[in-house]
Amino acid sequence: MRVLAAMSGGVDSAVAAARAVDAGHDVVGVHLALSRAGGTLRTGSRGCCTIEDAMDARRAADRLGIPFYVWDFSERFRDDVIEDFVSEYRAGRTPNPCMRCNERIKFAAVLEKALDLGFDAVCTGHYALLRTGTDGTLELHRASDAAKDQSYVLGVLTADQLEHTLFPLGETPSKELVRQEAEARGLTVARKPDSHDICFIPDGDTRGWLAERVGAARGDIVDDSGTVVGSHEGAHAFTVGQRRGLSLGVPAADGKPRFVLEVRPVSNTVVVGPKEALAIAQISGARFTWAGAVPARREFECHVQIRAHADPVPATAVVSAALVTVTPDEPLDGVAPGQTAVLYDGTRVLGQFTIDHTVSAVPVTT
């Protein structure tokens, strides 16, 4: 097969590309330039897709003896990921930019261009497994290494995309083995730190970054009875479940900490209340996709995961033509509209939806 290896400049994508070469594929490496800031450099484990990362990817490709290119996707990344991130916060939702990047850049724009150029598949360093189901269709499953499993952020992939995707690291029992393999292959990225945080906010100051783009405006913080208990400099700085940084002037009657229950962008109001009010009895969303075959039944049991590193929770899903509604066996904690819910059947990813609406197990009275 002709395989396009997406090389981020990290150890995982370098080893994935190496394994694709070992498998006998005709491999070409590509690094995605997602920022027009030419002087951008990496700071420790913060950020990705920087000048330094591009150079690391090129060195790895040279070591593997494969052609290497840099593709400029900065405009598409700005429009589909960064602007989406900003608009979601403006609407009082909590987006996941990694999900949008996988959905709209790495496995949409890149795969589309790769297929147009005659490639058969895109290879990445994600930790996930592809298996053939009993009906002959490809299924997306959790990786062998539960600690590194990335199936959650890949839940946005469709059946067609899975048909043209390779995950060579999915069976690897641990990340340390990947690093050891990189050292044995002479790859200079063998001990490079993993990237974390939001790649386009490398200093980690999400609040300050959003303030520049959304604007800061003083507003009220109210409790679950509607009483003003504090003020803020911009509702965009808060997300459901947040406890720190509230600076409340009026203590709770029971003396217990209060958490963000709701963000209301229209009135620029933040609602706070007790931790138990964060319990969510039901979630639903209209923006959904299926990672493989569409579920045969309208109602089915599954597990739902609402964060990349959250534990999956047993639940019942009901699907209509326009909506997915999930009722967990036990309430979920601190769910925010804008988050992604990924549905599993055992290790298999069934699909995902963006959470539009939540039903509290302890309704807010305001």
TrEMBL record:
Which reaction equation describes what this protein catalyses? S-sulfanyl-L-cysteinyl-[protein] + uridine(34) in tRNA + AH2 + ATP = 2-thiouridine(34) in tRNA + L-cysteinyl-[protein] + A + AMP + diphosphate + H(+)
Provide the top EC class. transferase
Presence of the UniProt keyword Nucleotidyltransferase in the record:
no
Question: Where are the stretches annotated Interaction with tRNA?
Answer: 148-150
Q: Which residues form the tRNA-specific 2-thiouridylase MnmA-like C-terminal domain?
A: 285-351
Q: Which InterPro entries does the record associate with it?
A: MnmA-like, MnmA-like_C, MnmA-like_central, MnmA-like_central_sf, Rossmann-like_a/b/a_fold
Which Pfam families does the record match to this protein?
Answer: tRNA_Me_trans, tRNA_Me_trans_C, tRNA_Me_trans_M
**EC numbers for this chain:** 2.8.1.13
Q: What residues form the catalytic site here?
A: 101 (nucleophile), 199 (cysteine persulfide intermediate)
Q: Which UniProt keywords apply?
A: ATP-binding, Cytoplasm, Disulfide bond, Nucleotide-binding, RNA-binding, Transferase, tRNA processing, tRNA-binding
Using the UniProt record, give the first listed, main subcellular location.
cytoplasm
Q: Which residues form the tRNA-specific 2-thiouridylase MnmA-like central domain?
A: 209-273
| Annotated residues for binding of ATP | 6-13, 32, 125
Question: Cellular location of this protein?
Answer: Cytoplasm
Q: Where is this site: Interaction with tRNA?
A: 126, 339
The similarity comment for this entry is: Belongs to the MnmA/TRMU family.
The role this protein plays is: Catalyzes the 2-thiolation of uridine at the wobble position (U34) of tRNA, leading to the formation of s(2)U34.
Protein name listed in UniProt: tRNA-specific 2-thiouridylase MnmA
Q: What is the native source organism of this protein? A: Microbacterium lacus
